[in-house]
Write a structure and sequence with these properties.
single chain, 347 residues, Aminopeptidase, six-stranded mixed sheet, 13 helices
Length: 347
């Protein structure tokens, strides 16, 4: 098959997989390829040429001309029992591809599943727990099954009240178009300055919308009042899951609870796509007991967002942390030293 056919077959396989994840779509690889990464699909096929497994690998150049890091987000994907059977052919193809690209190590953040069998399989395959990850390890996942009233009933009382209050306060939510990305970017800059966290360059959000909108896999939702945009979110969907990846808001009319109106609209949109789960994407990596004990007194890092996300009645879930397979031990050790001296805890 040519590259275009491989890409189409891979995306169809990912979309139908029970552990389907947005980050394994070729579209995600195209997005990251515009911002410092390279992507490659390594498919595993049966004798008839049908895709039965594989991985999308992302590559990023290391500093000081040290080579490349290879990274598989939420993969590899294969048969449901693949982690127990350790299909050697897939790992060998992945390692061969990574080495051809000059990778000094391969980082894997496995798809969602039972952690113990996956960790055991990675250890048997020669991986080691990584000191750095890329994606958040812990998240909150909302159950979208049942009726809308069932979903509201699972929320904390204050969150449910704020969702309904936003309707009474005349907040209007629209599904944005390409032209609305400019408004979203403006609100994102305000959010970054107010909450003191880094945001992507405006062209990143434009590219994300342009790539995923034709597939109907993204919704840009904008909340407004009296013709003024107050907040916006970008939500993505694939298979049974929707993900809330990017959110922004202004400093105006916050008493009208526009962000609550947005999340409720996102939940409704996700259900329209056939999703049964809504992943709020990232809370502090602490036990649920610790999260509940400390969230009212913490505002650093992801603690502020946990305060908001907990109210939607989802389940706190911890995913498999990153594991590394090292091809060049000296360069791997040198890079770890570089990160420690730079005070960086993640890739």
């Amino acid at each position: 098959m040519d590259d275009q056919s491989i890409t189409a077959a891979w995306d169809a396989f990912v979309a139908a997989h029970p552990q389907a994840h947005l980050l394994q779509l070729s579209t995600w690889g195209q997005l990251k390829s515009q911002f410092g990464w390279m992507s490659e699909i390594v498919p595993l096929a049966d004798t008839q040429g049908a895709v039965t497994g594989g991985a999308q690998i992302l590559y990023r150049r290391l500093p000081f001309h040290l080579g490349w890091m290879a990274y598989i987000p939420k993969g590899p994907l294969a048969s449901p029992n693949w982690w127990e059977s350790d299909t050697p052919g897939l790992w060998s193809q992945i390692h061969a591809a990574a080495r051809r690209h000059g990778a000094r190590w391969l980082k894997v953040e496995a798809p969602d599943g039972e952690s113990d069998p996956i960790a055991a399989a990675l250890a048997r395959a020669g991986f080691r727990p990584s000191p750095q990850g890329v994606q958040p390890v812990r998240t909150v996942v909302i159950d979208l099954t049942g009726s809308e009233e069932d979903i509201l009933a699972r929320m904390k009382q204050k969150t449910r009240y704020n969702v309904r209050l936003s309707e009474k306060k005349d907040v209007v939510v629209r599904k944005g178009t390409r032209a609305d990305v400019a408004s979203f970017n403006a609100m994102m800059q305000v959010t970054g300055e107010r909450d003191a966290f880094g945001v992507h360059d405006p062209v990143y959000y434009q590219a994300a919308y342009d790539l995923f909108a034709p597939q109907n896999r993204v919704a840009l939702l904008i909340a407004s009042y009296a013709g003024r945009d107050l907040a916006g979110i970008m939500v993505f969907a694939l298979g049974q899951t929707a993900w809330y990846l990017y959110g922004a808001s202004t400093n105006e009319e916050r008493n009208r609870m526009p962000t609550y109106a947005l999340q409720w609209a996102a939940i409704r949109w996700a259900r329209e796509q056939g999703c049964t789960r809504y992943d709020l994407w990232g809370v502090p990596d602490a036990s649920e007991d610790t999260l509940e004990a400390e969230f009212e007194n913490r505002g650093d890092g992801l603690w502020g967002v946990y305060r908001a996300k907990r109210g939607y009645g989802g389940q706190v879930v911890r995913r498999m942390p990153a594991w590394d397979y090292v091809y060049s031990a000296p360069i791997y050790r040198l890079y770890q030293l570089y990160l420690r001296r730079a005070g960086r805890g993640a890739e």
